[in-house]
């Protein structure tokens, strides 16, 4: 029973921003536990490449491009899922626009562009998921997981826009969890800290060393560790967990308060 509860066989999972980094690692973990994963990012060739690599590993995967900030491509994604699979069980909102600049260097056009992706995109993707998940058996529902960041709780230089929109995800998660709980649709947030991804490369060696010194576990996270946290929230092991936030940062949040 302890192993079966993490079995995702027969379930369809859509992971946005899954051609690299945390998204790709998460997609692979879900596929390894039986899910059919839809690899998605803005470029179809990148989606196809990752999906093909997964299939070579014996995993069930397909690639489907989607710009989550574009209403038409989001609608096309859900039309495809409905026609091909007739269902969606798991949505991982992971795609993000994270401009690296100061507040005064952030013009209104960039604010609007980031808003369309980081909030509008997550909202549109979640609404589309709910509409498909409601078609599942009343006792099945689904799981929506928003990938946020510890930047939502601790400001960092040059990441004000990113931090602002990640903080907003907390309210969105709780609101969706409340409204769609009766449909057995669970909605949760994961807040990763510093991981071995391209975002970590944006920090100077000095800043990265300081952040590691503040981290009780003393290392960067491995992307697969977010994947396993997602697996828990997507599986029946978390069937009584909704509207919550899970911090995965090696203890840095505890250290800096």
Topology:
Layout: E1 12-16, H1 21-32, E2 36-40, H2 44-56, E3 61-63, H3 71-84, E4 90-93, H4 108-133, E5 142-147, H5 160-180, E6 185-192, H6 198-201, H7 205-213, H8 223-234, E7 245-248, H9 252-256
Parallel strand pairs: 1-2, 1-4, 2-3, 4-5, 5-6, 6-7
Average pLDDT confidence is 94
Radius of gyration: 18 Å
Q: Give the number of helices.
A: 9
What's the arrangement of strands in the largest beta sheet? 3-2-1-4-5-6-7
**Strand elements, count:** 7
Question: Which percent band covers the strand fraction?
Answer: 5-15%
CATH superfamily descriptor: NAD(P)-binding Rossmann-like Domain
Number of domains: 1
CATH topology: Rossmann fold
Under CATH at level 1, the class stands as Alpha Beta
* Major sheet attributes: 7 strands, parallel
- How far apart the termini lie comes to 38 Å
- Give the H and E element order: EHEHEHEHEHEHHHEH
- Poorly predicted residue ranges: none
**Which descriptor suits the 3D outline?**
globular
Secondary structural class? alpha/beta
